[in-house]
Amino acid sequence: MNVTKRIKIMSIFGTRPEAIKMAPLIKLLDRNKYFESKICVTAQHREMLDQVLELFDIDTDYDLDIMKYKQNLTGVTNRVLVGLENIYKEYTPDMILVHGDTTTTFAAALSAFYKKIKVGHVEAGLRSFEKYSPYPEEMNRRLTGVIADLNFAPTEVNKRNLLTEGVKEENIFVTGNTVIDALKYTVKDKYKFENDILNDLDYENKKIIMVTAHRRENWGKGIENICKALRKIVENNNEVEIVFLVHLNPIVRNTVYKYLENIERVYLLPPINTREAHNLMNKCYMVMTDSGGLQEEAPYLSKPVLVFRDVTEREEAVEYGTVKLVGTAEDIIIKSASELLNNREVYNKMSTAVNPYGDGKASERIIDSILYYFNISDTRPNEF
Fold this sequence. Notes:
Blueprint: E1 7-13, H1 16-31, E2 35-41, H2 46-55, E3 62-63, H3 73-90, E4 95-99, H4 103-114, E5 118-122, H5 137-147, E6 150-153, H6 156-164, E7 172-174, H7 178-186, H8 196-200, E8 207-211, H9 221-236, E9 240-245, H10 250-260, E10 266-269, H11 274-283, E11 286-289, H12 293-300, E12 305-307, H13 315-320, E13 323-325, H14 330-342, H15 344-351, H16 362-373
Parallel strand pairs: 1-2, 1-4, 2-3, 4-5, 5-6, 6-7, 8-9, 8-11, 9-10, 11-12, 12-13
Helix pairs in contact: 1-2, 1-7, 1-16, 3-4, 4-5, 9-10, 9-14, 14-15
């Protein structure tokens, strides 16, 4: 490798899921002599983002602090664009790195395009092929994909999606998913929780179900049906206890508390930090969620996942059998959960299925791909 100056990389993210998945990559960038690494957070989600920054000991260089009460997509997009334009007057990177499918992701990619700055898209190529599901994430990732100069696709399926859309093959690198890298930092044997409720649960003799639900398309009737189904599941199965990590959004929170507050063996907790969540996932019996990231994390920990969605951009998980789509119909949720709770063969089949998302080396492959792109390395890196 020959290099005369360091490559200026700015990682831009704004939400907790982005931060979790970017953290292991940022750690490697900081240690690599070929990079000058800067961190810019938009704080699209303030409190939950800060928890991850503290966990991974990440210091930010720029903080747009854009979060507003009852913020909407237009406001978030506008504040990211204006904030980054001001930053570029002070510091112009050779490439920005964005992650996944948030409004921060798309707006940051667009801001870089306006300044003719290269864009690297981590977790590229995921598609549900439904414009409004998930909303706005599906279009965020598609539009970012059009702008991106480098596409770091977690799987071969993601690569095929990009090729179908006309992305040049030489600009796609199959890396695995960085979330698997993050789990290696956080999951520990004999972990002791900060929350006493979680410490007191009987993980050996009870069937603990970890639940999250927050997707915009599930607001209203969807969340109501999910809560009604969870109530019946716990009433019909004495060995079941549910830990529902309730999103801070008041629309979600009000619905969940309306249906599940004071229900025996249902614990409604605020979002917990990443280390706590990963270790809860590691100890629980199964996961029920509409989250994208949990569809990747839980299979690595051998936990079946029921997804409160009709489509998923993580189609590999469905194909491999680690994830099952159950939507938000109350009867289907109950039936699918009951199979996993009462049929050991069904449970074992899901919990032992092959995880398609990575080996913990995705960040290394991304680093090698950037070095290759900037002609510091002569060898195209091996893919996952």
